[in-house]
Design brief:
mainly alpha; 5 helices; globular
Length: 125
Amino acid sequence: MTGRAVRGRDLAVLDAEGVQMQTSERDEMVVWYEAGACRGVDPDLFFPERGHSCAEAKAVCATCPSIEPCRDWGLRHEHFGIWGGLAERERRIIRRKLGIECHSIFTDAEELITRRVKLGSARAA
């Protein structure tokens, strides 16, 4: 269950699996996302159907000043989509090699797309 839990002195943010996340990590995501080249781009571009090319999304990522923090976020939190110029399969390979666990805060790609659309709309307003 996603939510906030207060324990003693710290405010903890729990992801969908109940894993504690630092609030500063979530705040940090908003900072680099706002500077991202993907802001204002159709989120569907970053969630191509199975077997479709992700080259166009990766081209956007290649021009992005936020590619490194986005890639790091994708490796640690995202199962779906293109993040920091890396596709789902590429991130899985890197995670295995480096022993990184992915703790997604979203249950599926639809929820993530909805969040990206809302985040982009809120920033444009």
